[in-house]
User: What shape does this take?
Amino acid sequence: MRNMEFKAQMHEYAQWRAQLIDAIEIYHQWRIRYGMRDIHSTDTILNILNGLQADRVTLAFVAEFSRGKTELINALFFAETGIRLLPSSPGRTTMSPTELFHDEQGGSYIRLLNIESRLEDISLAEFKRNPKCWTQIDLDCDSPAQMQEAFKELISTKQVDRDLADKLGLWNEREAAEQGIINPETVEIPCWRHALISFPHPLLKEGLAILDTPGLNALGTEPELTLTLLPSAQAIIFVLAADTGVTKSDLEMWHNHVCYNRGGSKQGLAVVMNKIDAMWDDLADENGYEASIRSQIKSSAVTLKVNENAIFPVSAKQALLAKVKNDHVLLEKSRLANLENYLANDVLNQRKNMLQTTVNRDIGFLVKESVNLTNSSLEHAMAQLEEFRKIDFQNQDMTDKLMAETRDRQTVYMTNVENFQASRRIFAVQAQLLIDSFAKEKMDKIIKVTKHDMAKSLTTYGMKQNMRKLFDELRDLLQDSVDITNESRRLVKVIHKKFKDEHGFKEIEPQLFSIKQYQLELEQIFDEGEAFRSSAKTAMSEQSIVINKLYSTLIAKARNIVRQAHTDAVAWSNSVLTPLMHQIKGHKKQIEGRLQMLRKINSSKGSVIENIASLEAELEPLKRQRDELAIIVNAMHLDSL
Assistant: This one.
């Protein structure tokens, strides 16, 4: 009873992903072997492979303090260590956001980013790229006790001046007053801003990653958690306490940080009602206990506006104990199995479908082109063989006529090449306009001017107006790209149609550049920016801190999206006419092969039957090429092609 269902599903998912990677690598070698390799398709394939190899299934656990979230993580994934691996004792909860994963090259470690790094104008993403900025503790994976001791650093705190705590966003005068704390000289704060943990746990090695977020205050003071890390998670597990239900801070976290990241969708979102053991009552019967749980589930579902089936009542504490002691009865009573089944089936299947869709989108066009070209070459060779079988090669006039016709085809081929080069030159001009529309310089100019204006603003209102101006100007910049994209798409369609209608090329639906995804992502950022701009926390925060947060999160994300659009536009413009080029090359190869066959038959001293047999033998490599591709397509689950 050691979480076998989830482990088995995760193992199956990892195997499926490995097989998909193998199939794509075999396809890459197939393209090389049969002369279809070009630099742009190679880049596309390698990018897909890199993405699959780096893939992680990220589960984010979100809750206010003292909801038993870390204990739940221990029960779900680390019970086989026989100890409470991550610190989750009462009153001693994880203080810094923590990511757990397996870094094969980096080894086993805890990396801790000091809390003072919040004062620097550097994003978490940038810090992650520089390990030297972190304090590292090596882990001994053969000693769970050493790991347990090392993990205690996650709950370390220290005393600092109140002014520093205020600058770090870790001092709230109103909340302190409610606790009877008035004008303290020092304040207790977490030692660490963020933690990265790597070790070779079987689930982590197979691609599982866990994000443990410590309370509403951390989400409020670390925008990257809400704006970057949570949206990238495949599932968010929101943890409540059964004995308290949905509190005011729970609800604030749910609306502002959890639901917001799902865009209103409840997909990949589960609510865990933990600590049901607090409702166990030896004096009450089982029916009363069940009724209490059902009542709390119903109440929470109404408050959170979710289906009751999306709420999982659990006792993480008893589940961990049951797994450590191998107590099947207690494990069943903890009700952890339903949550494990949800993670194993719903979440992993969603991720699998998402990856398959990405592969279909990014590599499907290349595979479809390969299938069309391979079938076309084989069909042409078979048609030519049938033609040769019916020709009297003893008739010299007939042979001469065939040679003349084939040379005429060569002339047409040269015309096609000239037309293709002319079309490519016209397209190159339009493609450059598209690429330039995503130029970093254009965006940076807007950002620089607006940041300067924000810093000069004497009032919060003025600063907020400059934020709105920034988002409006970035939206206008994107609209210019939309117009240029539409013209680029139109031109590609015209070129493909021309070669089909005028030169008899096989129709291949061109892969058209789409700006829609970047629009959606940027609009989401603009919405997040509007919420950030309008929030009370922004109005109450020091101006320099607000500007730094805005630029290290939202603007950094916008930059990355535009940078990706620029990269994708370059890749698309370089590759969109490649299918036409491959058809031209294939046409050339067919003509040269036909001339060679005619010369061979014309000069051969053997019988016509022997020469026909020789031509039949030359079909075998083409059939093998087709059959190999069919197997690869099946292995990549692209059967619809």
About this structure: The domain at 56-156+191-334 is CATH 3.40.50.300 (Rossmann fold). The radius of gyration is 32 Å. The chain has two domains: 56-156+191-334, 391-603. DSSP finds 25 helices and eleven strands in the chain.
